[in-house]
Specification:
By secondary structure, the chain is of the alpha+beta class. It has a single domain, classed as Sandwich (Immunoglobulin-like). It has one helix and seven strands. The longest helix has 25 residues. The radius of gyration is 35 Å and the shape is rod-shaped.
Amino acid sequence: MENRTIAVIALILVVSVAITVSLSALSTVYKIQNTAQLKTVGVTVFSDANCTQKLLNITWGILGPGENKNFSCYVRSDSNTPVNLSMHTENWQPANITSWTSISWSLEGFTLQPNASAPTALMLAVNGSIPLGFSSFSFDIVFVGSG
């Protein structure tokens, strides 16, 4: 009986090994590593050509009726994809000053490549027919990079 038990156990082991070898021969594993980069879009404005000094505010000084003033700065892409540049303003104080003032820049619609920078000129204009009573005004410039 002992030899018979040993033979049965040996047979079970041989069959188990044969099944394992057969099953492993019928399957395989193939791994593919994946990486991805998320699209980032952003711009920063600087006061210097080396793009080391972030521009936080502009003091235009005194402007008279019909006068324009220019301000030079640099826009840098903080994106990993090309960005289209645009600019708008908000938070004018007093709100009705917008009827007699305007601001423009030289990069409207310009496409800036990733990590590149470009010089731009901002121009603030005061209409010649601005009424008396305005002594100062303020506003925010919003630079937009989209893509």
